[in-house]
Amino acid sequence: MIEYLRDWFWTYIWKPLPDMPFGAWMETFIRWARDAWAAGFDAVDAGLEFLYANLADGLLWLPSGVMVLLFAAAAWAAKGWKLGVGIGLGMFVVAWTPYWEETMQTLAMVLVAAVIAIVLAIPLGIAAAESRAFSAVARPVLDFMQTLPAFVYLIPVVMLFSVGVVPGIIATIIFAMPPGVRLTELGLRQVDGEVVEAGQAFGASPARILVRIKLPLALPTIMAGLNQVIMLALSMVVIAGLVGGGGLGAVISGSLGRLDIAAGFNAGLAVVLLAILLDRVTQGLSDRTPVARAAELAR
Amino acid sequence: MPAIEVESLYKVFGKGARSAVSQLEAGVPRDELTARNVTAAVIDHTWSIEPGEIFVVMGLSGSGKSTLIRMLNGLIKPTSGTIRIDGVELGSLSARELRRLRREKISMVFQHFALLPHRTVVENVAFGLEIKGLAKAERLERAREAVELVGLSGHEDKLPAQLSGGMRQRVGLARALAADTEILLMDEAFSALDPLIRQEMQDQLLDLQGALGKTIVFITHDLNEAMRIGDRIAICDGQVKQLGTAEEILMHPADEYVAEFTADVDRTRVLTAEAVMEPCGTRDTSAFTTVEPDVPVNELYEPVLNSRSPLLVVDDNADPLGVVTPRSIIKSLAPERESAGAEQEAQPA
Lengths: 299, 349
Description:
Chain A is an all-alpha fold. Chain A has helices spanning 2-14, 22-36, 38-61, 64-78, 81-96, 100-130, 132-147, 150-161, 165-189, 193-201, 206-235, 237-242, 247-258, 261-287, 290-298. By secondary structure, chain B is an alpha/beta fold. Chain B has two domains: 49-262, P-loop containing nucleotide triphosphate hydrolases (Rossmann fold, 3-Layer(aba) Sandwich), CATH 3.40.50.300; 268-346, CBS domain Like (Alpha-Beta Complex), CATH 3.90.1280. Chain B is 41% helix and 21% strand. Chain B has 17 helices and 13 strands. Residues 338-349 of chain B have low confidence and may be disordered. Chain A binds chain B through residues 192, 194-195, 197-205, 208, 212-213, 216-217, 289-291, 293-295, 297-298, and chain B through 73, 75, 99-104, 106-108, 110-112, 114-118, 127-128, 130-132, 159-162, 175, 179, 185.
């Protein structure tokens, strides 16, 4: 009986099916897009390259010793002197490795990608919070962006933008954006309905309720999203290094090829210390939002 | 012109709301609709509120009172029926006009205060004025006045989290008063507060009302509270079960539903000499101690016990209205409907 079913299934369902075409469709679409929107891709390429190059040059403009102090000062300002000292020590270790320049390049890449991801994510998160339909459509797309292995979308991105730093940034934006959208939506949906109702009852327009009530109240959650975006962006650097992204990613993929444990460990340590810097500073900033400070006072 | 006028107002939630209204009009009971996942929150309300009146809507949870108050400022659209604010029908207004009406005519106080946690007391109070578009200096000035009015001077620059519940609700009240609207909607405004604080807030509201003369719609599930502050009370369970003054409801409950509520009320605070007096008959009343008709019963105990004769209730012109005896007081305190009926017959025409 089971064999009969299997044969039936094979003869009438599997065999007549053509080869799975989704991949081929995607390829056709990407090739078509490359030609049809060439000018657009060139403009994006040039724009991102410009942002990245200038930011990286800016970070490397001052000697590493001065930059270490500046990072320590930023951490102090964001949280307190303890964090300032810790970050100062961490960045000193980074400057001690031979990879200061690569670290600053990686930081520039992460910052460009994270800022663009956040700029895109917040309006999308607002739209998802305001419209159930939009949210229902956005959710699977975000899942797709976040879980599709990064190498897979690196292929078309490299095809569209050629190798270099830009495909790395694009891949990073795609991978890092979803938590920004999700946490913006979550933060806005969690705003106390009665407070929103108070805004309506006093005759505030929807735009005003968004800007004056919902966004300030959602800000701590949105900041947590920003933190997530930055951390995910940093986790993409190695992969970006594979496609000629430069920075620490290039060092790490290079040492993988040469089985150079020392170089790989040094570069890896720089990634970790950079991650701690970015995480603690953004967390310090989110503790300083007015709502978070009010909650702190209440305790 | 009434400040608020409501005519055959219905609000039904769920599928087929419109047809549910015609069924309700035809007399289908509310429970039958509930079984079909259609919730009739407000059924056939027709009443009006005069300027300066405190109108209390009293009902248990699920009686549609929160829905009702949100229809009065257009946050919820009625399924059918009309609402007029100062003669203007809400249904005829665009979203923009409706927002303007809320800014200028109606403000609201919420059960859980609904304050912005990151703003100071005075900034919260100024919220309505900010939406009205007042310049910062002026709105803070007026907000400070409102803060003083509710007795929170000295706390202007604190955050809501640093205040107690009663103080937070004073901020909510000040915010509504600062908006300087004629109509004040209060949605279970004191229900989240401790009993003592609640009484304090009720007294303060009555004091403020004496000075300001707003039109207040007050929602509560507590009949004692309703009787304390309401000029008139509407007891609701979907439809209005009874609408009248505290005394009318206590003395002549319209049905079993209302009578059950009134059983728990402290009648001695609500009933007055006028409500419990008996006819003078042919007695010679010239030597009797006199009382005014609006003295509550709980202030009559001592004079009744200390006087050898009944108390004589007299009006402003010192004309006798009736007499109060210990017996008439005790009789009025018995909650049975039968006695309420007997009382009615015994009262002078």
